[in-house]
Amino acid sequence: VIPLLARNAAVDVAASGDLGGAEAPSSPSADLTSVKPLWWGDLEAAGALTESGGSFDVVLCCEVVYQQPPHVLEALQATLQAVLTRPGGRVVFAYQHRDGAEVTDARFFDSLAAVCGLDFEKEESLSQWDGVWDDIDYRWVRTYKATVK
After folding, report:
1. Overall number of domains in the chain
2. Higher model confidence: residue 25 or residue 6?
3. Global confidence as pTM
4. What is the per-residue pLDDT for 75?
5. Matching InterPro entries, A to Z (predicted)?
6. pLDDT by residue (tens digit) across 64-114?
7. How, if at all, do strands 90-96 and 139-146 pair?
8. What is the distance between the alpha carbons of residues 88 and 117, in angstroms, rounded to a whole number?
9. Which CATH number fits the domain that encloses residue 99?
């Protein structure tokens, strides 16, 4: 997964307005973008990442909340708190609502502000692109913004 994410990030940077789409992903501007693995709850590794690479603009989380035991969600929250030290940094969750998980998942999302200092920013439905579910929204992108710490 990490090599694919790194490749996608490099392509996105090369195609961004900052580079005009003309520079190769090995340009100095591309060096500002990095993709790294990080085990949730490994706060020493999280600290090392922020010390070596500065702060994070975006942390992307996809399909990480569904039916996780409380200790796993607590580790995720602690890790997000450790790496989102830059005011305005964001964590983006790609999330699909599933039967039976609404209450547990809602508690996790509600606790992000209290535990991590993350404020809910927006929620967008992805069902409009799905075509499978025309009348019910199951797929969401939830964005949270880090507050000053």
Report:
1. 2
2. 6
3. 0.69
4. 93
5. SAM-dependent_MTases_sf
6. 887 788 899 899 999 988 888 777 788 888 777 776 676 777 788 888 877
7. antiparallel
8. 11
9. 3.40.50.150
Q: Are residues 29 and 48 in the same domain?
A: no
Quick one: three-class SS letters along the chain? CHHHHHHHHHHHHHHCCCCCCCCCCCCCCHHHCCCCCCCCCCHHHHHHHHHHHCCCCEEEEECCCCCCCHHHHHHHHHHHHHHCCCCCCEEEEEEECCCCCHHHHHHHHHHHHHHHCEEEEEEEECHHHCCCCCCCCCEEEEEEEECCC
Residue 33: phi and psi, rounded to 5, are -105, 130
Confidence band (pLDDT; 50, 70, 90) for 136? low
Say what the pLDDT of residue 148 is: 47
What are 2's two structure tokens?
Answer: 């990490």
